[in-house]
Amino acid sequence: MGKFRAVLTVHVWEGINLASKDSNGLSDPYCVVSVIPTSKPSKAKTKVKKETLNPTWQEVFNFKLEHWESSVLKIECLDWDRFGSPDFMGQFSIPVADIEGELIDSYFTLLPRDGKNDAVSGKIRIQAHVKVTEQAEKGGKPLVYSDTIDKERYKSLDAPHIERQEALFQLIQCEKKYQQDLHHIIADYYSPLKSILSAGALEYLFQNIEEIARTSTRFLQALQERQKENDFVIMKIGDVVEPFIKQFKCYIPYCTNHNLISERLQSLMQATPELSSFFTEDKDASALEVALKLPKKRLLRYQAQLGAYLNTLPGEHVDKESLPLVIDQLQNLIAEINNQVREKEFVISVQHLYRSLEKAGQHSLMTNAQDKTRFVESITKVTILQDDLNTPAIAILFEDSIVFIKQNKKEPISVLHQFGLLSATFTDLPDCIEYQHSMKLKTSEVTLRIEMPTAQSKVHWLAAAEHYQQALLYENMMLQSRGLDEEAEGVLEQAHTLIEQYGQLLPIEYVNTLEEMLNYICDQRSEQEQTRENITQVNEQLHSLNDRAHQLNKAEAHANLTNSGSTIGYLAVNSATATGSAIKHGVDSFMKRPSNL
Fold first, then answer.
1. Are the C-beta atoms of residues 555 and 572 closer than 8 Å to each other?
2. How far is the C-alpha of 118 from the C-alpha of 387, rounded, in Å?
3. 504-536 pLDDT, tens per residue?
4. Rounded distance, CA 453 to CA 430, Å?
5. 458/397 Cα distance (integer angstroms)
6. Long-range contacts, 532-539 (Cβ 8 Å, 24+)
7. Which among 449, 398, 388, 389 is positioned nearest to 420, based on CA atoms?
8. CA–CA separation, 332 vs 328, rounded Å?
9. Long-range contacts of 353-358 (CB under 8 A, 24+ apart)
């Protein structure tokens, strides 16, 4: 076995509200825990818990991983049968890379198998964490700070000082390992492939990897020079790191495409037979995929390691002032990358959705009553919790409706639910054991509990749905009010004419009261007209901002869609709360029109 580089520990705690598979209304559940791929047998089983839908296992399993960055943890729940094969009760998967750096402790929703109509329900609680060991080839232990400094000098340092130096030592050691990995990518893959791939194909796959390698080299040299200034006792680091933040912007074009590496590599291998022949058992394509994802992981680790060092500093330390600004700049850089990644993923999702609906004969879902393409606000994988069943679905939020579809590789796309936005109410649900990141969707016909993938996605959906509902309400009110306004105008003119003709025959007090009432109504109508104009201006400004965001942020995506023969409108994420409150204020004012009009 090759050296293992990480240990994954999985603690399977318990299950709640699992599906009934036996005639007595209960089940005999157990879990199969597996990791793909690993260097040794990678499956483990919990004990069977008889006749229960809420089992408690509390069993711990350890897996030694070589390529942990590309491994996936999979949990299957099965019902034990004495004489037959076990019944499937649900499953879920977690990329091991998502666990690294933190302890996962959560209830995970059980889902059916892809292409199967499995009746599954409930959740399973697991704890999991990854310890990256980077074990040495011959059993030697990794270097620590005390190995690199004079023993007497080391003994003279107090514990807080040693903790700070250890944090900086790990930063430098990680940068050394990272630089070695980058040079490995360039020497073993990038340079040899120059004779196989065109310059465009090479950039398509590796982006600006050479520029990133040069930046890492300069950064490591600067860190090592500071390390040598005072015999391996670093007094400050903020002034060394700060100048490199601007240089780290070279990560933006690379990292915004890193999640497409697998697809890009596969497409190039299909188009270029020589590329497929290039990969061997010792130099396989999956290893390159893992390696090409390292730059974004390193960028994230910069933030974590600098934060760890910052936490060791006393209050008066000089880095206390400069380093928080550096970390903020790193966070902004990562946020910019994540925003661009989300934009690209959204565009790809819209393109894929459009093609899938067209292929399934469901193209009408993408068009409104005027046969115009609907704006797509969001496409999200969700779980519908209804009638004690967990149903995975894709939720599509349009500007005027919401659609839930079911899609897998073995069956054509199908529509589970479709609602007009004004017919639905959304309620935020607090997190609990049974459901997390959930909201309730209610119409006159059905009530659904929707589990979103993250808390952030739930907040966005609720805000966006409220924004579009208010916009639709405003449009409907404007349509209905036009006829009323025309009728009211005629009634007011008739009232003024009658007062002029017959006012002399009525008591003066009565005439004055009528005139005051008419003047009041006219004033109210003027205010309402101004409110209507204000609302219209807000609406026009909102559309203008959306159009500008669409042009600036998604020009490339729009071109791709146009070239593919499909023109799809979609909106950037809006500041729904601010614009929604402005429209709501206008709508509330408009609703105060006199009842006799």
1. no
2. 14
3. 665 666 566 666 766 767 776 676 677 667 767
4. 15
5. 12
6. 532/478, 532/481, 532/586, 532/590, 534/586, 535/474, 535/583, 535/586, 535/587, 535/590, 538/579, 538/582, 538/583, 538/586, 539/471, 539/474, 539/583
7. 398
8. 6
9. 353/379, 353/394, 353/396, 354/566, 354/568, 355/566, 356/407, 356/413, 357/413, 358/566
Residues 175 and 294: their CA atoms lie apart, in Å, by: 12
For the stretch 428-460, pLDDT in tens is 999 887 778 999 999 998 999 999 988 888 998
| The three-state (H, E, C) secondary structure of 21-60, written as one string | CCCCCCCCEEEEEEEECCCCCCEEECCCCCCCCCCEEEEE
- The encoded tokens of residue 234 equal 């670093």
Counting beta carbons within 10 angstroms of the beta carbon of residue 228, is it exposed (0 to 12), middle (13 to 18) or buried (19 or more)?
exposed
Using CA atoms of 54, 57, 63, 68 in order, give the dihedral in degrees to the nearest 10: 30
- Per the listing, tokens 């023993």 go with 151
Confidence of residue 557 (pLDDT cuts 50, 70, 90): very low
Q: Note whether 51 and 24 are within 8 A (CB).
A: yes
What is the amino acid identity at position 476? N
Residue-level pLDDT at 132: 73
- Tokens representing 504 are 């002399």
Structure tokens given for 516: 């005051």
- Of residues 314, 267, 309, the one with CA closest to residue 158: 314
Q: Which residues have a Cβ under 8 Å from the Cβ of 35 and sit 6 or more positions away? A: 8, 42, 63, 65, 71, 72, 73, 74, 96
DSSP state of 15: E
